[in-house]
Design goal:
The structure holds 2 protein chains of 2 kinds. By secondary structure, chain A is mostly helical. Chain A has 2 domains: 1-192, no CATH class; 195-294, no CATH class. Chain A contains 17 helices and no strands. By secondary structure, chain B is α/β, with parallel strands linked by helices. Chain B has one domain (3-268): Metal-dependent hydrolases (TIM Barrel, Alpha-Beta Barrel), CATH 3.20.20.140. Helices cover 41% and strands 14% of the residues of chain B. Chain B starts with a strand and ends in a 35-residue tail after the last helix. The chains are: A mainly alpha, B alpha/beta. The A-B interface holds A 40, 43-44, 47-48, 50-51, 108, 111-118, 145-148, 150, 178-180, 208, 211-214, 291, 294 and B 47, 50-51, 54-56, 58-59, 91, 93-95, 97-100, 260, 276, 278-284, 286-288, 303.
Chain lengths: 294, 303
Amino acid sequence: MALSSIRQFLIAILSQAAKAESMGWLDDQIARINGARGNMKLFLAFSQASRYFSKDTFQLTDQQVAAAQELRPGFQPSFWTALQTARTVLVLGVLSEENESWMPTLDQLFESADMHELEALYAALPLYPFPEKLKKRASEGLRTNITSVFDAIALNNPYPSEYLDEPAWNQLLLKAIFMQRPLYRITGAEERANANLAKTLVDYVHERWSAGRNVMPELWRFLSPFVDQETLGMFEKVLKEGDELDRKAVSLACFHGKGAECRELLDQFPDHLEAIEKGELNWVLVGKAFDSER
Amino acid sequence: MMYIDPHIHVTSRTTDDYEAMQKAGIVAVIEPAFWLGQPRTKVGSFQDYFSSLVGWERFRAKQFGIVHYCTIGLNSKEANNEALAEEVMELLPLYVGKEGVVAIGEIGYDDQTPAEDKFYRLQLELAKEVDLPVMIHTPHRDKRKGTVRSMDVSEEHGLDPKMVIVDHNNEETVKEVLDRGYWAAFTIYPHTKMGSERMVEIVRQYGPERIIVDSAADWGISDPLAVPKTAALMKEKGIPEAHIQMTCYGNALEAYGQSGQMEEKDWLEKEPIDQTKKHGGNTVLRGGQKPRVDNDSSNIIEN
């Protein structure tokens, strides 16, 4: 991944969405930052970008979406705003692939950032050089209670599934479930499902049910690779007592789960099986349906 | 009617207060950086405080349908720890350019010491450099002299009075502050500063021009509803509606709107207050907590 080509790409999509005057301001700031000693120009420009760029997300062409994917697999700027893109352009401009001398500057930006600035900094995690050095930063970010900051790391971002170790990754998933975030937008979620996470989720389901509360239907996706007697019991209960979306989700978990018992459960719902085979029932659709119900 | 409380330390207030403020018609608040009761001893405490003013507190307010702005500055009390104050001064440029920072403040005098004077002047220069309004805290003790001196020094540094809001005025200071072209803010704070009845008489006597009402509610015995309550009292006592609108809403918007960081559309166009909205997030509400959209009083605390 070449830092400069990513940066050029961001400037290109930004200039389509932003006013010429705003791009002029950005060029001017880049020149000032390059000519200055110390970081104050960078910090001011990073903050003041909010005066020149909107918080509207991009409308990208299919080619642009594909180009982003080619530059950095998993990178999805169609979820980005003009403002965060401008901020990322400024930050990438002071980084280097040669050495890590810029790390303290990036730390300082993180430590003094406001909410929208944090969103920009965290969403760009997959674009920074030396990504393995930013694992602690990513875990720290996930401890936030601000939904949009959590989302910037957790959703449509390839960094966590590529770099977080299992405990940190499982925290991300568990917290996303607590906060009822759309799990289908977590990049690489299925690939990184694991037995420890499944055990924790089983406990979580018990806790929720004891309290007379429901769980989000996407949760069952992460139990399906690790089906045992206990999970089968849970599946049965939901298929009996859950609402339509919950039952569809459990059917889907049974479909992807191993073993004859899963199949037997699914056989009780031939309409679900048919929908799955026709592509009319999958995890993305379950997630979207749950999102729109709320 | 819509109200703005242009001086309130909501960091110290509970979610009950936020709910009550929203119900009473407060659409926006300005939280000036100030002293926390406990003196800070490390520059990191200031940094985290400033970060919370532009971060967490803003997010928290939004969940109750209130738009939160702030002012950034080194308060006069803590300017007296000079070594620390120097470090804080280096921190300020990191924050003053941020979105929603509507002034440098609250700055000015407390004991009126040489150290306070030094950092007040340095921050007036900073305000000029970044073209932001200034919020002046006038002292509790020796108020008249402190207020006059705040204005003299501000003029010495070439600030335009229309960019300066002088806060915590009383009957003894208001005339000169207005005559010299400044915004005159009044803090309705029980026992120490001003009661709402006196405020009504001041508006009756001086009219609504450049007069601003605020609560400065904080960690002390104070009232986060001081602005809407004073507005109600003005109405009761026959102050014209237009004058109430100016002193409890319009003037604050005009004065701090000069920052370019505060506009009426910020609250007129915001999404409806529905904590279930994805964008609003639900993390003051933890976990799967059921968000409250409406309030009915009962002994049942929602599961």
